[in-house]
Design goal:
By secondary structure, the protein is of the alpha+beta class. It contains two helices and three strands. The protein is elongated, with a radius of gyration of 25 Å.
Amino acid sequence: QEGPGMQPTRLRVVFCNPSGHKVQTNAYLEVFSSSQEVGISNYIFKSVPVDGRPPGGPLDGKQLSTPYPPIDQLELRRLMAKGKETTYCYDFLTVFEKAVASMWEDFARAANHEKMQAVSWIARKVWSGS
């Protein structure tokens, strides 16, 4: 927002890639809170919908001064697996999902290529009079 007397809109976008395979995106507006507690920030995070998902990220409703959470057990296990150059077992579903999607994309490209070859062959036969 711009103009005389207008306050700028503050937006924070947070990217997180805990599994190493799929990036999670959360967007937050910094909005003024009516909280009057002493020593408490008057600004909180308010989630904004991203990628068609409903709002409600992990920082939604928390104060701007909220510290980052420590590494939880799941992230610790992921880091241990990464240190051993492997994938954490619960992340295999994401890896499998990406592999299946990639295979379908390859199939679609090949099918389209074969269809174009067939159309070209038919066109040659029709135009050559054979």
